[in-house]
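Regression test case RT-17, inverse folding.

Input:
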C-alpha cells in the first residue's frame, strides 16, 4: 500500500495529496496509506493523524455520506470554511470583511432529501453511503429534526407503493408550520390505484402535502412557512434555509447591514426569506429564477398587511445577470445564490453603484459564514 501526505482539503471536504490524489475522511498534515484507484485512494488508513482529528459525534458517520467533516475539530472546520470563501472571492478580485461563522445546533435541520428503494421484502430509506449508490439507514442522525426523522418510515412506505426495484425514489422532506411537506421524485407513473394508496398513506402519516413526480397528490393543509409577518406557501421541493436557527442568523445580519436603506434589490430571493421581513421597512425588488417561487413570494406579500412595496421578477441571473445600470434604483443589494460551484457565483457579477451584501452559505453544512459588504 502506497503512502501519501495530505496537503489540503477539496471543496467537498476530501483530503488532497500531491498528484492530485483524493482521500476521503483525511485531514491536512496527515500521512495516510491506501490502494490507488485512478486518482482516488481506497481502503485509507491513517498512519500519522492530524492534531485536528476528533471522534465523529454521529454513529452513522463512517458509513453515511450525508456529512463530510465530523472527523475534524470545530476550530479547524471554521478556518477551512473561511478560507474557502476567501479564495472564491479573491479569484474574482473581491475583498471584504467576513463575519464569525455561526453553527446551528444538533437536530435542527428542517429540510432534507432522503433516498428510498424497494427491497425483496420491504423498502429502505436514508442517505447514500460515500461515493456509492447504497442507501444507509440513519435512525440516530444528529442533524435532522425529530419531525424529519419521523418521515423515514413514510419514505419507505412510498417506495413500497410506487417504485420498481430498478428505480430510486428521491424524497424531499420539509418541516412546515402545518406539518411535513413531502415531494417525491423518481417513482413510477401513478395509476388510479397507486394514487389512492399514496393519498391514503398521506392521510395515515398526517402530512400536510404530498407531491409525486411534480404532481400534487393531496394537500391536507397548506404547508406554510413564515417569513417575517408573512405566511408563504412554497412550491413543492422549494429551497428553504436548512435550519430556522441559520435563517434567523442570516436575517439578523441582513437587517443590521441594510439598516435604513430605502430601496433594496434581493437577488436569488427564493420565496422571500429576506424580502418579506425587510419589507416591513423597505421597498424591495425580488429576483428569482423560478416563476413558482416568485409567485409564492408575491402571494405572501399581497396577503400580509402593513408591508412596503415588493416587486418581483423571474430571471435567470446566471445567464442574464443584472447590469450595472440596473442597480441604480437601489441603495443596497442582497445576493444569496444557491450554486454548488463557488467560482460561478461571481463570474458575472457586475460592479454595481450601490453597496452589496453577499450571503455565502457553505456547501452541505448547517454552518453559515457572512461577509459584511463588498
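Golden output:
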Amino acid at each position: 500500500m502506497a503512502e501519501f501526505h495530505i496537503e489540503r482539503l477539496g471543496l467537498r471536504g476530501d483530503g488532497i495529496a500531491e498528484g492530485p490524489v483524493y482521500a476521503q475522511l483525511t485531514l491536512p498534515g496527515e500521512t495516510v496509506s491506501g490502494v490507488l484507484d485512478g486518482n482516488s485512494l481506497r481502503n485509507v488508513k491513517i498512519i500519522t493523524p492530524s492534531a485536528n482529528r476528533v471522534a465523529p459525534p454521529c454513529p452513522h458517520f463512517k458509513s453515511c455520506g450525508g456529512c463530510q467533516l465530523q472527523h475534524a475539530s470545530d476550530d479547524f472546520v471554521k478556518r477551512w470554511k473561511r478560507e474557502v470563501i476567501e479564495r472564491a472571492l479573491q479569484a474574482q478580485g473581491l475583498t471584504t470583511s467576513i463575519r464569525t461563522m455561526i453553527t446551528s445546533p444538533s437536530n435542527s435541520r428542517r429540510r432534507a432529501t432522503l433516498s428510498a428503494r424497494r427491497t425483496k421484502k420491504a423498502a429502505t430509506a436514508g442517505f447514500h453511503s460515500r461515493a456509492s449508490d447504497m442507501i444507509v439507514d440513519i435512525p440516530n442522525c444528529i442533524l435532522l429534526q425529530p419531525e424529519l426523522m419521523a418521515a423515514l418510515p413514510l419514505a419507505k412506505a412510498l417506495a413500497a407503493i410506487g417504485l420498481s426495484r430498478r428505480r430510486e425514489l428521491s424524497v424531499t422532506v420539509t418541516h412546515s408550520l402545518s406539518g411535513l411537506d413531502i415531494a417525491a421524485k423518481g417513482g413510477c407513473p401513478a395509476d388510479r390505484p397507486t394514487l389512492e394508496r399514496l393519498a391514503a398513506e398521506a392521510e395515515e402519516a398526517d402530512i400536510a402535502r404530498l407531491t409525486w413526480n411534480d404532481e400534487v397528490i393531496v394537500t391536507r393543509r397548506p404547508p406554510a412557512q413564515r417569513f417575517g409577518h408573512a405566511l408563504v406557501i412554497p412550491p413543492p421541493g422549494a429551497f428553504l434555509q436548512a435550519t430556522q436557527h441559520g435563517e434567523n442568523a442570516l436575517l439578523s445580519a441582513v437587517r443590521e447591514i441594510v439598516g435604513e436603506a430605502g430601496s433594496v434589490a434581493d437577488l436569488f430571493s427564493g420565496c422571500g426569506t429576506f424580502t418579506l421581513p425587510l419589507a416591513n421597512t423597505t421597498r424591495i425588488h425580488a429576483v428569482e429564477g423560478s416563476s413558482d417561487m416568485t409567485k409564492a413570494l408575491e402571494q405572501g406579500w399581497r396577503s400580509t398587511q402593513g408591508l412596503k412595496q415588493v416587486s418581483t421578477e423571474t430571471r435567470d441571473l446566471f445567464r442574464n445577470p443584472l447590469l450595472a445600470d440596473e442597480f441604480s434604483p437601489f441603495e443596497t443589494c442582497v445576493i444569496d445564490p444557491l450554486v454548488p460551484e463557488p467560482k460561478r457565483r461571481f463570474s458575472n457579477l457586475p460592479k454595481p453603484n450601490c453597496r452589496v451584501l453577499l450571503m455565502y452559505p457553505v456547501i452541505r453544512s448547517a454552518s453559515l459564514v457572512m461577509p459584511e459588504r463588498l
